[in-house]
Amino acid sequence: MDGNLEDIRLLEEIQQGSQQSFELFYEKYIRFILHIAYQIIGNKEEAEDVCQEVFLELLQKSFQYQPEKGSVKAWLAVKTKSRSLDRLRKKKPLLMNKLEALVPEKESPLDLIFLNEMERHVLIDALNHLPEKQREAIYRAYFQGETHQQITKHMKKPLGSVKSFIRYGLRNLRKQKSLVKWMEAERGWKE
Amino acid sequence: MIHIPEMKLIDMAMEKIESEEEREHIKKHLAICPHCREKLAKWQIVMETETNLQPSAELKENIWKQASATMKPKERKKKAKTTVAFASAFIAASLLVFGLFHTKPHVHPTVEVAQNDRIEEENLRFYPETKQVAVIPVSDFNHIRGNLWMNDVTEEMLLEVDGFIPLQEKDYQLWIIYENNDIQGELLSVQDGVTRVLFKGPEINELKLIKASVEPKGGSSKLTGPNTFIVPLENNHDKENRKE
Fold it and tell me: The RNA polymerase sigma-70 region domain covers which part of the protein (chain A) (predicted)?
């Protein structure tokens, strides 16, 4: 844990106003934080805003760090995940962008990572304008982790119908996203 | 069942846990806990994925400007001392426990906490399984009123307390006390005398008490000031809803 003791020392020096220690700490971790934020949010500019929030938070609240729970690096990772999910909750177009990654042929394991840790009502709200069956099929497939076979069983519908619900649901999701973008543009970017 | 703190799982994903004993303890837990297994798997994916993202040139300067603007020299010194004291105490305690006595590594639970503006719209109060528990004001803080709504199914709790008087050189601090007597401290953010705190995570089922006290500015590592309110939780959990 030598590296961790070094991190704790840097945090202490930063709090005493050492810009040099800040730069060392920044160079050591900025790419790590940016990487996590970007994987969750999917937008570089927003991910950088999260980096800024995380750095400021840890500089102001480093007393909350508890070494027995894990390393400083792990603490940064948890904070970054939390702030990134907060951002998706607050900015609907960002969440809609992430949901667009649901298009099956584009989906990678990272696209939806941690999204299922968001409150169910936030996700349901984002899918709100979809017809009920499409919404249910998409929620089950992507946030409950059910297979098409399991969805078939739960929804008591044939496999072909389930696949159609998902396909049409995704198509509607893209239309909904365009609508949300247009509405947000009309009234300005919503915090 | 007490889950492994997410920070430990991240260290595990990064293969940064040096103690063989601790690694074994976590592995044993993972073998019986799908919740922690899933979390670990997600972090492994994140760590194994590579991106060539480079931060913007101005990001470092922006962060430093903001950070230095919000930290006055005196506060910086004071905070630093507190941090040194906390960190040294934790490290000393860890070395003592792991180095001298070789006891079983102790895994602490953690509950996620969001306050005031950081709380997304929540409907917790309207769910049928949600229970309401009144906040009990203590001694000189009889004007404090509040409630806590808890839902063991959604694993969320919302605390709303009104009647905080602004403090000059002190802060209100929240103490989250677990059944195994572990304690998690959080500074309370008070806006117009009111605070709202949302707690999330399976660990809420392991809580026995929440209380708040008046502490030195910036928070304290242990309770020193007078208590302001308490919320007993031990008998309010739905035992049948507890996750294995």
Answer: 25-92, 126-175
Final residue of a domain: which of A89, A107, A126?
A: A89
Residue A111: its pLDDT value, please? 58
Per domain, the residue ranges of chain B are 6-48, 70-107, 112-241
Q: Does the pLDDT of residue B211 top 50, yes or no?
A: yes
- CB A71 to CB B186 under 8 A? no
Q: Do A52 and B45 touch (CB under 8 A)?
A: no
The parent domain of residue A158 ranges over: 92-187
pLDDT-derived band at A72, boundaries 50, 70, 90:
very high
Residues of B in contact with A56 (CB under 8 A): 63, 66-67, 70
Number of domains in chain A: 2
Mean pLDDT of B157-168: 87
The CATH number linked to A13 is: 1.10.1740.10
**CATH class assigned to B112-241:** mainly beta
Percent of chain B with pLDDT over 70: 79
Domain boundary among A52, A70, A89: A89
Domain shared by A96 and A183, yes or no: yes
Residue linked to tokens 């392991």: B206
Q: Is A29's pLDDT higher than 90?
A: yes
Check pLDDT > 60 for residue B213: yes
Q: Are residues A83 and A97 in the same domain?
A: no
Cβ A67–B55 below 8 Å, yes or no?
Answer: no
**Chain B residue numbers touching A77 (CB-CB < 8 A):** 7, 10, 43, 46
